[in-house]
Structures are given as structure tokens and as C-alpha cells.
Amino acid sequence: YTEAWDADKKSIHVMPDTPTILLAKANAANVSHKLYVQAWEEAKKKGYDMRADAIPIRSAKASRDIASDYKYKETHEKQKGHYIGCRSAQEDPKLSWAARAMMLQNDRIYRKAYHDSKAQVHIPVDAMSVQAAKECQTLVSDVDYRQYLHQWTCLPDQNDVIHARKAYDLQSDNVYKSDLEWLRGIGWLTEGSVDVVKAKKAQELLNERLYRTRPDEMKFTSITDTPDVVQAKINALQLSDV
Length: 242
Prior knowledge:
Layout: H1 3-10, H2 19-31, H3 33-36, H4 38-46, H5 55-72, H6 74-78, H7 93-117, H8 128-140, H9 142-145, H10 159-171, H11 173-176, H12 194-206, H13 208-211, H14 227-239
């Protein structure tokens, strides 16, 4: 079914001078970057010849000199109206800073020869101070002070080795604490310990019942013939239903 159509598709021929083809070519030429910069590339290939005394060159140099002079004097122009003046050079911060910088520079130049030559000192190896320093180093040296003994190899069944082993066992912390092994697991009541006694004392100090006595617990007998008691009795009789 599609065989005839496929054959017709391969036999279609478009004329190169149709309006659509011409319009497409014109659009391609308009949007082509290569054609857009072709004239500029050809002009660059030709080169240029510009003399040093040409008017554009002289104008550019004059503009550069004017801009450079303006930038050089820009800070000065900004500070023209702000400078008040000082009574002495010590009160002027700029003059003080300049004097300080000059002093540092002079000190650096003054010490330059010393710094250049301080690492080039040659001392004889047999000088008195060098020999004294060597002797002092030998005296305070830990390597020369300690002379480690020879590591002797002893038989394990010698009497002195057996005696030393027994003495070491007696002084050993593990052997020393082995007598307390029988105490492990034995119960112990905390009554009477330091922490318990301390807690009881703190509780007694903080107990308000022991610190304060309640008024109802105090023995007090009121006087029966005081005016307020007599008045209370009269009021009770007047208000009594009986």
C-alpha cells in the first residue's frame, strides 16, 4: 500500500528558484554570523598604518596625561578645605607618622650591616669559652651521667634469685592485698558509718520540729480577771440561748 508513496517521495524535485527557497537563502544570509563579520575580518587582515604623531594618538596621550594628573591630585583636592592646622609637628598625625616611619627606616638601615654579618661569626674550636661550654655540657648531660649496668643472666634456681623472688612477692601489691580476699561477700550494716551519721546530723539540723516549738505545746494559763476575759464572759451570757 505504501510502496508507491515511498517511491514518489524519492522522486520529488524542488526548483532552486522558487520564492520559498530564495526567501530561506536570504534569511540564512541575514542571520549568518560569518557573513556579518566578514567585512571586519577582511579589514583586520589588511592591517593598519598609524603614525606616532597622528591626531588620534596625540589626543589619546593628552587625555591619558590629564586623567593621570587628576587621579594624582584627587586626594589633595579633597583635603584642601579640611586641613585646619596644628600648633606643632607633634600634634600633626601625618607629620608624626612620617617622623616615626623615618625613624624606623633609619633604624633598619643602621642595623642592616649587623644583621648581614651576625651569621658569619667564626669561633676557633679550641677557644676557652667553647671548651668551658663543652665541659659544662658533659657535666649536665644525662647520657654521660647514667651508666647502665650490664644485663646479667642468672639461673632460676640460684639462692639469691629465689630470695629476691620471695622478697618481691612480699612487697607486691597483689600479695599484700590477698589477705583481704576473705572479706569479699561478707555483709556489712551501714548503721554507724560516717555517711549515715553525717546524714542524721544534717537531718537534725534541718528538722523544723526540733528547731521550733509549737504554741499549743507550750504550758500557758491565762488570767481570768483581765478586762478582755470579763468582757468575753459578759458577751457570752448575753448571746446565750439559755
